[in-house]
Structure formats: structure tokens, C-alpha cells
Amino acid sequence: MRFRWFSILVAGVLCASFAPASRAQYAVGDWPMYRHNLAGDGFSALEQINTHNVANLKEAWTYQLAPRGFFNARLLESDEVTPIVVNGVMYLPAGPKVVAVDADTGKEVWSYAGKSLQPSTRGVAYWRGDGHDPPRIIFTTFDKKIEELDAATGKLVPSFGDSGVVTLDVGYVGVPTVFGDIMYLGATVGELPIGPPGDTRALDIRTGKILWVFHTVPRPGEVGHATWLNDGWKGRSGTNVWSWYMTVDPKTDTLYMPVGGSSPNYYGGDRPGNDLFGNSLVAVNAKTGKLKWYFQTIHHGLWDQDMPTGPALFTIDRDGRKVPVVIAMNKSAWMFILNSKNGKSIFGVKERPVAKGDVPGEWYSPTQPFPLKPPPLARVSYESPDIVTAEDTTPAHAAACRALVEKSGGFHNAGPFTAWLYHEEGTPVHSSIQFPGGTGGSNWGGVAVDPTDAYVFVHIHNNALIGWIEKKKPGLNYGRGTEGSTQPYDRASIVGPGPYAGFSAIAKDADGKVLGNWPCQKPPWGKLIAVNANTGEIAWSDVAGITKGLPPDKRHTGNGSSAGPIATAGGLVFDGATTDGMFRAYDSHTGKMLWVTDLGGNGNDPMSYEGRDGKQYVAITAGNMLHVFALP
User: Fold this and answer.
1) What's the pLDDT tens digit per position in 176-223?
2) Which end is more exposed in the chain, N or C (fewer Cβ atoms within 10 Å of the end residue's Cβ)?
3) What share of the chain is helix, strand, coil (3-state, %, to 5)?
């Protein structure tokens, strides 16, 4: 059993008499950023909780994220919050407020409820301050604002923008990435084909002044502009960093931007070409915004498999050399391990032919990039024998799945990047089926990295998307903001238009009680996977998650949400990214599950920190509750 003792360096701890930003360091036990650090590795160097004692982990305290009865349409998604901790204080959005709580006890230190709409339901950012300005808490809101608070008092910072508030032309509901005295914001622009640009912006932390803007759809004279044929770039929206965070290499002043797909998601006849920088990892100079390199993971995306997560930075051993790498993952099943200095693939990428579709006026890329290593981490194809049977789930569920196939006219699948077929009204339907589906193999939870052995951990789910492309019908809502667009075609299915119609069916018991909406292909439906980035091979995988409505001997199906895991120096991986409401700890070297508890709701990305009392804590949100665990 692997277990490592780290020699912990004594790091500068922020306090009332804070040090200048150039010298101040976060303590080893802090978790000061959404994915822990600028590298986005989701790794804690704490080892008090380890493979020997994690089975004794108990709930230490909880915190209710929103007041009872609070409701704000779709904005209340507090189970997507990941808190941060600096110097024994936890900061997080909580329903309509931003709060600071004692990280040992959960006792509230201050709370702030501004006049804006609800704060981002993802998290907040922390700026360490300097010799003149104290530390600040930075967050975005759902009405296109950025607000800054004094970290000690929760009061607005008057010198930032207009008395502590900056109003943006284009909003962002993720967490600002903070590097030095600059914050970086993506863009939340929806999925209309024509609309506000999805450009990335850098702002001055002290004033809120915009320092530079990077055009994610290149303009005339810019690198990548030639990939937009027939003026498809004009007015183009989407193509944005909608991920909740970006990552930075402070040694090279490089900002890594995971740029999502071009809009609309499923039709690209009005944007022929490869559409840079859609579906790309883009590296720029963090201080100037100047392009360094890019790597496109999908050409001319038609599958909504865009880049949902910030890339992770670390170092691998390659042929006796230390090589800095960055992990690029979109919602497909592929992991691209790239040299972080130049974007070149470590294990090679091959452009392979993919099948074309038959949608009128559509433009299809003849090839797509396939990494030679690692192998696909999730299902990428489907054949008719892959459908569940009564032996896999239940007779009623299997029958419902067969009925779905029949109503859909059967399924067309040509492997990865299966093109959507065209359905003309009045003709028999015949659906395509895409693996992974629009919610991905992995999603915004991203990866966690153990930098000591270059293991990369990711939770995947095997969900499909079904349907066809049709001429848009007046009055129907095709979802994701596209109902107001003039695009001529969009995706629909036997269950109607909309973005996420999947290959799943309602399961009921003998009394007609709904047990769940279960996938219709054979399990496993989700896995936790460890990739050895030194070799590009899968080190281990576990069928993670159970389906509670199934008989005990069939429950170990695996499943997955959009969240991701973290890793710790105690030799552990913590994972709450299942749809069964459970939170689990695994041996990071072997994949053996060592601890599990029921959260009562689906978990988000966890985090770990050291309290003022010297204890290591592990925290995770589920539903409207923050759960914090420690050893007795």
C-alpha cells in the first residue's frame, strides 16, 4: 500500500498584517482557488487523512447554502459550489449571498447580499493583496457584474469599479482566475449562432479596468481567421470559455484557455471550415493576451462536445527527461496530453477520416484528431446488441428501451463523431446515436492529478445522445437559447426538440413507482479512471456508482454526473461525481474503495484544507448543503 510522508515547508500565512503579493505565499493547508492552485491540479499536499485511517472519516459540520424557501428560477444550483479556504476562513457563494465561515466550525464570520442577482453558483476567487490593499474576495453574478469584497469584513471595495461593482457587456458565471494583479474572465454567451462575442478578457484587480481582450473567433489578419469560410466569423457567438476556471503557468506567464464549441451546437452550415478557436486549448501570454499556441481537439464541432474544464498542468518523466505537460479534455472520451510549452502531443495524434452526414448545406470536416494514447476513456460506439436486457436491469426497463429504439426508427452509429442524419417531415424517422452524448464522457469537473507519480484521475459517464437534424419548426423551443435564432436547422428526437435527449428510459417498479431514468445501453454507465501520464496507459479503473432502484445483485452499474475528483498526498482520491448521492475515497495507487458515505444528494467537486486546529478537512457540496468531514 502506497503512503508518503511529505516534508512540509513552512509557508507564509496570510493574516491581518499581510505581506506584499510578491513575497506572500499560501499555506500548504490552504485551498485558495477553485481547483486548488493556478495549475488546476485538484491536489492537496495534506496527508493527515490517508489510506490507513480514511475509513474513520466522520462528518464534522455542515452549512446550509441557501435559506429555506429561497428560490430563484434555475439560478439555485448550489450543489455546483466548490468553496475556497485561506488562513482558516472558508469563502463561498450561498444562495443569494456570499459568506465567510470559520473553516473549523462552520460558524459564520460575515455574509454579503448585494443588490445584484444571485452570485455565481460555482465559487469565488481570492486576491492576496499587497502592502497597500488588503485581500479581496471576487465573484461574478448572473446579471453581468463583478463584485469585490474586503476579505476580512465582507464590505464592498470602493476603489474597484463603481463603488465595488463592475458591469460587463458580456457576463460570466464562472469563477475569475486570479494571477498576480490580474483577473481573467471567460464569457457566458449562450448558444445563439449570432450574438455577443465569447471573447476572454483580462481585468485589473484593483480597478476593474479591462487590460486586454482575446478574440476567440479570430478577426481578419489574426491567426485562425482563414478557418472561417464564407464570412462565417461575422457576428459569431459561442466559441467561449464557459468553463468555471482557467489555469496559469506562472514560470512562463502563460494562461491556458479551454475554448468551447462554436454555436449553434448541432448545425454548422453557416460556419463552414474548422472554426478556430472552437473546441481548442489556447495558450496566451497572461500579461498581454498575445497568442502562443493552440491545439484544436475537434474540427467544426457538431456534437456539443466542447471544452468544459480548465486544463491541468504538471510534469511527467519521458525518456529520462522532465517534461511539462498540460491535459486537454473535451466532453468526448479523449484525453490529450500535450507539451505545455508548445502544444505538441506527447504520445502523438493522428487525423483519421470520419463519416459525413446528409444535412442540406452542412460542411463536414473529413478528419478528426485522435490521440494515440491514452485509449478512449468512455464508450465511443454503439451496436444493436449493446442494448440492455432484463438480466442487466429489469424487464420493464428493458422493454421501455426497446420501445424507444423502435419509435426512433432504429439507430445509426459510425463510431466516434457519428454525423447526425437529416429527417425530412413526412418521412419515416431514423435516428443517429452519439457516444459520448452532449453531457460528455467527462464534463466540467475535470481531472485531478497526483504530481508525485503523474497519475491523472477523471470520472466519466457513458451517456448517449439520440436524434436527427430537422428543419426548424416555428413555435418549438430547441433549447439553450436557440429558439430565437434564425438558424434553419437544429437537432430533435422522438421525445421532441431540445439539447439533451438521451438513450435512456424511465424505470418503474411493479406498482408503477418511478425508480429513475436509466441508460439503455449495457453497463457500466460510469467509471473512475486513473491514467499514468508517464506512459499514456490506463493504470486502473473502477465501476463507480450504484443504481439504488435495481436489485442488490445488479446495482453495481456505475454512473456519473458532471463533477470530478480530487487527489491528496495521503494516497487518496475523493470522488462525489456519481448520481447515487454517495461520496467515496479510493486508494489512488490501486483504485480500491476505502470509504463511502451517503450525502443525501449528488456531490460536486470536493476540496481539502487544514483548519486552524491542525486538522485536515474534506468538504463537498450536495444539494443545498455543504458537508465537511474530518477524522474523529
Assistant:
1) 999 999 999 999 997 878 889 999 999 999 999 999 999 999 999 999
2) C
3) 5, 35, 60
